[in-house]
Design goal:
This protein is an all-alpha fold. It has one domain: Arc Repressor Mutant, subunit A (Orthogonal Bundle), CATH 1.10.10. It contains four helices and no strands. The two termini are 17 Å apart. 16% of the residues are buried.
Amino acid sequence: MLQIDDAALMGRAMRQLPNRAHDLAVLRELRGLSYQEVADAMGIPCGTVMSGLSRARQHFAVRWMTT
């Protein structure tokens, strides 16, 4: 039961991320792509992926704690 609740909370927190942050998080954290693979898939520089993921993780943490 706890795992189901956690999954629902995680889904809700992920849906609240801005679009780009959501896409970055899905590609890196859920699909397991490397930073370079994410950069190639999204057509952005690798440094942008790294900084974007940092912000996405911060947003996610805030939403996880308030959900």
